[in-house]
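Page 47, continued from p. 46.
Same chain as before, 314 aa.
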Amino acid sequence: MQIKFLTIFNANKFLFNSNGFAGKENPCTVLYRRAHWNVPDYLPWGFSLAHMYLSRFSELMVHKPGEGLLLSLLATILAPLRYAYSKFVESDIKKKLRLEKHGMVPTHSFLKEISSCLISTVPEKFYDKVENGEIKLKKAPSFSFCNNGILVEGETSPIEADLVILATGFKGEKMLKHIFMSQTFQDYITGSPDAALPLYRECIQPRIPKLAVIGFSESISNIFTSEMRCRWVAELLDGTFKLPSIKDMEKNIKEWDEYLKQYSGGYYRRKCIGALHIWYNDQLCKDMAWKPRRKKGFFAELFEPYGPMDYVSN
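Result:
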């Protein structure tokens, strides 16, 4: 039996593989709202994204929450290099995935992509299947269901489909909000609609200090990031350190909010530490009385990527 597939993605994260299900006769149509920089991790890059974006040196190019004058000046001086990094990666992705040919070149920078945790990988031969007609790409700001498939806004002819896969995600702030019956606490946890969710160290709402939220703020590796937060919360419960005053926590939250708005564009609300995960972990380490610098040697500390194995012990 031949089945017509239609997959809808909120953030254009291509995870659908049509092998064995669709073909040129019954292609899979992928609807997306906005093109994103998807990384072809199966291709020989010739350079390391981890070294470019997950090292202390890479974070020196970015203005950081709570940074001093020297670091702020350094980030400004290194701004041209930061721009060159982003353009180099964008150029490589466009070439390898032939994005211009398919009208899939994003309008935002790769730095903004990684700073908002929207980066993902493209399945191998995905664009080969687009070129031979097995997969069809279609930009659709909004859509509605009809008797035989999906009707894209502004069009009169529907996209016929026997099966529709909705991979559009969810709004995590609504889930947090409805933990509480009290409107006051709902307002505390969600904060202002024009600011990122107010979580100190991405875990604690200053006015609800007995609630810890793990996993809302994203990173390049969410398991690694969540484990660090769990260890931070465990040390807090053990009395290793105490939370600052509500005023100081809210000041820190505001600083991170300003960073997110500067680098992640319209996606600041979802929260992401992807481009500053070392700076963020430094704060957790200092709270827990751990040594923040985890590498051996000056050059290793500055240029080697940081990962889970760097935080195995305190």
